[in-house]
From TrEMBL:
Organism listed in the record: Pedobacter quisquiliarum
Domain of life: Bacteria
Boundaries of every ACT domain copy: 399-477
Cofactor annotation: a metal cation
Purpose of the protein: Bifunctional aspartate kinase and homoserine dehydrogenase that catalyzes the first and the third steps toward the synthesis of lysine, methionine and threonine from aspartate.
Protein name as annotated: Bifunctional aspartate kinase/homoserine dehydrogenase I
Pathway linked to the protein: Amino-acid biosynthesis; L-methionine biosynthesis via de novo pathway; L-homoserine from L-aspartate: step 3/3; Amino-acid biosynthesis; L-lysine biosynthesis via DAP pathway; (S)-tetrahydrodipicolinate from L-aspartate: step 1/4; Amino-acid biosynthesis; L-threonine biosynthesis; L-threonine from L-aspartate: step 3/5; Amino-acid biosynthesis; L-threonine biosynthesis; L-threonine from L-aspartate: step 1/5
Gene: thrA
Keyword list, A-Z: Amino-acid biosynthesis, ATP-binding, Kinase, Lysine biosynthesis, Metal-binding, Methionine biosynthesis, Multifunctional enzyme, NAD, NADP, Nucleotide-binding, Oxidoreductase, Sodium, Threonine biosynthesis, Transferase
Catalytic activity of the protein: L-aspartate + ATP = 4-phospho-L-aspartate + ADP; L-homoserine + NAD(+) = L-aspartate 4-semialdehyde + NADH + H(+); L-homoserine + NADP(+) = L-aspartate 4-semialdehyde + NADPH + H(+)
GO biological process: one example: lysine biosynthetic process via diaminopimelate
SUPFAM superfamilies linked: ACT-like (SSF55021), Carbamate kinase-like (SSF53633), Glyceraldehyde-3-phosphate dehydrogenase-like, C-terminal domain (SSF55347), NAD(P)-binding Rossmann-fold domains (SSF51735)
Length: 815
C-alpha cells in the first residue's frame, strides 16, 4: 500500500485537482493508496492572518469569504449541478463554525495557541471534504477521514509531539476496518487525548503521511508538489539547478537542514525508521520520475548532491585565554543557548581552543549575546574572556553528499571556486561525517557563491562565463559574431556558455542581468542603451556580483586601462587586445600582473602581439619552464608586412596603405602603424614578458617615413603626405629590388636592448619569404640555441584578432 500526499499547490486550483484525479486514476489499478491532503495553497497563511485580525477586532470578512469562494468555485467547476448542493451545505456548516470561533476570538480579544490550531484545522478539513467529494465522481467507495482523530499528541499547540504508539494503534485499527475504501485523510492536524485539535508544525502534512506510512508499513510514500523533485540548489538562486534522481536519508536531512523547500525531511523520520522509500513527484509533470529518498542508494556519479543555503545568519565570536583547556566551557555555552531555545546553525572552534564562533538566526543574536554576557560575567570582568562580538548580514552555504566522504579534493574545489570569485570565507565547518562542508560568507556574495560552486561541482552542466565587452568596432563586432556562431559548439564540446552581460562603445552602453542576445546586440544597444560612462559601467558590472566574470577591452583607448587594476582586484579576469595598458609605464604593467595574481584571476592579452598567433603564450611557457631568452627577432606589424608584400609593380605606396586599412590590419589610426609606435608597443611588451623592466623610451626605432609624413596632424593629411612622398618610397623599393632584396621592418631584442630597424634582406634571410599580413617571430633561447623556435602566420585582421580574444576568454572558462 502506498501513501500519496498532495501539498497545497496540488489542491489549490481546478487544474491541479484535475491532475490529482488522473494521478489517482493511474495509481488505483495497483491497489488503493491512502491519500493525505493539505489545505488549498495559501489557505493556512490566510487563516493565520484572519485569526490575528479577529483578535485585533479588525474586519476579516472579505478574506474569509474569498477562502469560502475558492472551495465553492472548485465544486461548481468540477461537480455536476445536481451533485453540488449537499457539498455546499456541508461546506457552509464548516464556514459557519469557523465564523463562530472567530467571533469569540473577537469578543475575547484573545487568540490562544489552542484556538489558533482549531481555526487552522478548517483548512485541511475543507480541502479534504471537497476533494473527496469530487473523487466520488471518478472512484467507488471514497471515504473522507478526519486525521485528527487518529494522530494523538500532547497539548503543545502549534507544534505538538506525537504519541506514536497510540497513534499507530488507532491508525491500524481504523485501516483494518476500512482498507477496502479509498481514504482521503486530512494532513497536518491531530488531537489531544481529550479531543482538542492540535497541529503538527512545519511540514505537518508530510508528517501525517509519514506517520500513516509507518503505522501501516506502506511500500512507498509519495510527496506530490509543484516541482520535479529535490533540486541541486535553490532554483531562485541557481538557474541551472536540476532535480536529483536519488538521495539517501542522511543527504536529504543535511540538504533540508539548510532549507530545501519541497519536503521537510525531519518530519519524515517515522518513514526513515521503517526504511520506507519516499518519492518527491510533480503533480504538473507526473511522468517525470522525481526524486527518490531511500536508505540504500545506488552509487552516484555526482561529486555532491546539492548546495543548500541560509540567506541570513549572524555570527557570534567568543575568544579569550579563559577558554583554553577548560572542558566545561563549551558545555556551559551550549547548554545556555539550548535553555534559551536558541538554535545553533553552525559551530567552529579553533584548534588552539582560543575561540569559538557560532551562527544563529538574526532574531536570536541579541538575546544570545546578552545571555552570554550574563553567564560569563565573571570571566569577562577578569579578562579571561573578551566581550563577544556580533557580525550580521552573513549567509551560510553548504555542500552536501555522501560521495564527499573519503574523497580528497572536495574542499579544494569548493574553496577554489569561492576564491577565484573573490568570495571571502568568514568561517568554515565540516561535520566529521564528511557529508557536509559549510561556509559562512557575506550575504551580498551568496548568489555569486552558490552559482560558482554549482558550476564547479556539476561539471556535466555548462559552466557560464559572464562577459562585459568594451568596443564594438572592427574587433568587437567580429568577436560578437564569432561568439554568436560558436555558442552551440561551445556548449557541446566545452560545456561552456558565454553570456555577454554588458556592452559599451564610446557613445552608448547597455548592461543586462539576463544577458544580451548576440543576434541583435546592435539593435539592443541602440534601443535600450544609456550614454556611455565607463566609470558607471565598471561600477554596475561589479555590483551585479556574478561568478566567473571577464572584462574584455576591444578598444584602442587609454581610458579602459585606468580600470584594469580595480577590475582585477574585484576578482574579475581581464582580456585585452588593446596594447596601451601593457605598453604604458612599467609600474602599471607590474601592477596588472600583481593584481591578477593576488585575486587569483587571469589577465590575458595574447592579441597584444601578433594578433591570434600564439606568441605571448609561447613566451610565457618558455619562461615558466625556466628557459632563458637570449634573442628575439621579429616582424610584428601586420600592416607594414602587408604593405611591403603588396607594394609591387606600379602600385602606389599610399594606395597599398589605404588597402591595409580597409582590410582591417591597421590601428584605428594608421599612423600608429607606419610611425612604428604599434611595433614598439609589441616589442616592449615582449621584452617585459621576457623579464626586462623597460620603458618605451628604451626602445630605439628607425623611422620608415620621411619627416613630412611623420608631422602630419590628421589621417587625411597623412595620406596626402604619403602621396606627396611617393618617389621616396619608390626609391626605397627599387634600391632593394636592384640588389635582389626585399624591405623588412624588423624588431630585435638582445642583451636587454630593443631596436626596430628598416632592413633590406636577401633570400638567405629567414624573413625573406613573407606574404599577406604575416608576422614572424623567432625565439633564440638556452634550449633553442642552435636553431630558433619560430612562429609565423597572419598577424593582423579582425577575424584572427577576434579569434585570439575569443581563445583568451575560453581559456579563462576552462580554468
Ligand atoms: N586590427 C587588428 O588586426 C588588431 C590586432 C590586434 C589588436 N588590435 C587592437 O584591437 C583594438 C581595437 O581595434 P579596432 O580596429 O576594433 O578599433 P575600432 O576603432 O574599430 O573600434 C574601437 C571601439 O572602441 C570603442 N571605444 C573607444 N573608446 C572607448 C571607451 N572609452 N569606452 C568604451 N568603448 C570605447 C569605440 O567606440 C569603438 O567601438 C585596438 O586596441 C587594436 O590595437 C587590433
Ligand atoms: N595594427 C596592427 C594590428 C595587429 O596588432 C598591425 O598591423 O600589426
Ligand atoms: Na598573439
Amino acid at each position: 500500500m502506498k501513501i500519496l500526499k498532495f501539498g497545497g499547490t496540488s489542491v489549490g486550483s481546478i487544474a491541479s485537482i484535475k491532475a490529482l484525479m488522473s494521478i489517482l486514476e493511474s495509481e488505483l489499478p495497483q491497489g488503493n493508496p491512502i491519500v493525505v491532503l493539505s489545505a488549498f495553497s495559501g489557505v493556512t497563511n490566510q487563516l493565520i492572518d484572519i485569526a490575528e485580525k479577529a483578535r485585533q477586532e479588525q474586519d476579516y470578512s472579505a478574506e474569509l469569504k474569498s477562502i469560502e469562494n475558492r472551495h465553492f468555485d472548485v465544486v461548481r467547476a468540477l461537480l455536476p449541478a445536481a451533485a453540488q448542493n449537499p457539498v455546499f451545505s456541508k461546506l457552509t456548516i464548516y464556514f459557519n463554525q469557523l465564523e463562530d470561533i472567530l467571533q469569540s476570538v473577537s469578543v475575547l480579544k484573545e487568540l490562544s495557541p489552542q484556538t489558533r490550531d482549531l481555526i487552522l484545522s478548517f483548512g485541511e478539513r475543507c480541502s479534504t471534504f471537497t476533494i473527496s467529494h469530487l473523487a466520488r465522481q471518478h472512484f467507488k467507495d471514497v471515504l473522507a477521514v478526519d486525521g485528527s482523530e487518529y494522530i494523538k499528541t500532547d497539548a503543545a499547540f502549534g507544534n505538538a509531539r506525537v504519541n506514536t504508539a497510540l497513534s499507530d494503534l488507532l491508525i491500524q485499527n481504523f485501516y483494518n476496518l476500512h482498507q477496502a475504501s479509498l481514504l482521503f485523510v486530512t494532513g497536518f492536524i491531530a488531537s489531544t487525548d481529550d479531543g482538542r485539535i492540535t497541529t503538527l508544525g512545519r511540514g505537518g502534512s508530510d508528517y501525517t503521511a509519514a506517520i500513516w506510512g509507518s503505522a501501516l508499513a506502506a511500500s512507498e510514500i509519495q510527496i506530490w508538489t509543484d516541482v520535479d523533485g529535490m533540486l541541486t540548489a535553490d532554483p531562485r538562486i541557481v538557474e541551472k539547478a536540476f532535480p536529483l534522481k536519488e538521495l539517501s536519508y542522511t543527504e536529504a536531512m543535511e540538504l533540508s537542514y539548510f532549507g530545501a523547500k519541497v519536503v521537510y525531511p525531519p518530519t519524515m523520520t517515522p518513514a526513515f525508521l521503517k526504511k520506507i522509500p519516499i518519492v518527491i513527484k510533480n503533480t504538473f509533470n507526473p511522468a517525470f520520475e522525481g526524486t527518490y529518498i531511500r536508505p540504500d542508494t545506488q552509487p552516484s556519479d555526482l561529486p555532491i548532491k546539492g548546495i543548500s543555503s541560509i540567506n541570513d545568519v549572524t555570527i557570534l565570536n567568543l575568544s579569550g585565554s579563559g577558554m583554553v583547556g577548560k572542558s566545561g566551557f563549551s558545555g556551559r555555552l551550549f547548554s545556555l543557548l539550548s535553555r534559551e531555545q536558541i538554535n545553533v546553525i553552525l559551530i567552529t572552534q579553533s584548534s588552539s581552543e582560543h575561540s569559538i564562533t557560532f551562527a544563529v538566526k538574526p532574531d536570536d543574536a541579541v538575546n544570545a549575546l546578552q545571555m552570554i554576557n550574563k553567564e560569563f560575567e565573571l570571566e569577562l570582568q577578569t579578562n579571561k574572556l573578551e566581550y563577544p562580538s556580533l557580525e550580521s548580514n552573513l549567509s551560510v552555504i553548504a555542500i552536501v553528499g555522501e560521495n564527499m566522504r573519503h574523497t580528497p579534493g572536495m574542499s579544494a574545489r569548493l574553496f577554489n571556486a569561492l576564491g577565484r570569485n573573490g568570495v571571502n570565507v568568514r568561517a568554515i565547518a565540516q561535520g566529521s561525517s564528511e557529508y557536509n562542508i559549510s561556509v559562512i560568507l557575506s550575504k551580498e556574495d551568496l548568489s555569486k557563491a552558490v552559482n560558482a560552486v554549482h558550476d564547479a561541482f556539476f561539471s556535466q552542466l555548462k559552466k557560464t562565463l559572464h562577459v562585459f565587452c568594451l568596443g564594438t568596432g572592427n574587433i568587437g563586432k567580429t568577436l560578437f559574431s564569432q561568439l554568436h556562431s560558436q555558442m552551440p559548439y561551445l556548449a557541446q564540446h566545452n560545456d561552456l556558455e558565454v553570456k555577454v552581460m554588458g556592452i559599451s562603445n564610446s557613445r552608448k552602453m547597455h548592461l543586462s542581468m539576463e544577458g544580451i542576445d548576440l543576434s541583435s546586440w546592435e539593435e539592443t544597444l541602440e534601443t535600450y542603451s544609456e550614454k556611455a560612462d565607463l566609470q558607471h559601467f565598471v561600477k554596475r558590472m561589479r555590483a551585479m556580483n556574478l561568478p566567473n566574470c571577464v572584462f574584455v577591452d576591444n578598444t584602442a583607448s587609454a581610458e579602459p586601462v585606468q580600470f584594469y587594476e580595480q577590475v582585477l582586484k574585484s576578482s574579475i579576469s581581464v582580456v585585452t587586445c588593446n596594447k596601451i595598458g601593457n605598453s604604458g609605464d612599467y609600474s602599471q604593467y607590474q601592477a596588472f600582473k600583481k593584481a591578477a595574481r593576488t585575486a587569483g584571476v587571469d589577465f590575458y592579452y595574447e592579441t597584444n602581439v601578433g594578433a591570434g598567433l600564439p606568441i605571448i603564450r609561447t613566451l610565457r611557457d618558455l619562461m615558466l619552464s625556466g628557459d632563458k631568452i637570449s634573442r628575439i627577432e621579429a616582424i610584428l606589424s601586420g600592416t607594414i608586412s602587408y604593405i611591403f608584400n603588396n607594394f609591387r609593380g606600379d602600385r602606389k605606396f599610399h594606395d597599398v596603405v589605404r588597402e591595409a586599412q580597409e582590410k582591417g590590419y591597421t590601428e584605428p589610426d594608421p599612423r600608429d602603424d607606419l610611425n612604428g609606435k604599434d611595433f614598439m608597443r609589441k616589442m616592449l611588451i615582449l621584452a617585459r614578458d621576457a623579464g626586462h623592466p623597460m620603458e618605451s623610451s628604451d626602445v630605439s626605432i628607425e623611422n620608415m617615413l620621411p619627416a613630412a609624413c611623420m608631422a602630419a596632424t590628421t589621417v587625411a593629411e597623412f595620406y596626402t603626405s604619403l602621396e606627396a612622398n611617393a618617389s621616396y618610397f619608390e626609391n626605397l623599393k627599387s634600391q632593394a629590388e636592384a640588389a635582389g632584396k626585399v624591405l623588412r621592418y624588423i624588431g630585435k631584442l638582445e642583451h636587454g636592448k630593443v631596436e626596430i630597424t628598416l632592413q633590406s634582406v636577401d633570400e638567405s634571410h629567414p624573413f625573406y619569404m613573407m606574404s599577406g599580413s604575416d608576422n614572424i617571430i623567432s625565439f633564440t633561447t638556452n634550449r633553442y640555441s642552435q636553431r630558433p623556435m619560430v612562429v609565423k602566420g597572419p598577424g593582423a585582421g579582425a577575424e584572427v584578432t577576434a579569434a585570439g580574444v575569443f581563445a583568451d576568454i575560453i581559456n579563462i572558462g576552462k580554468r
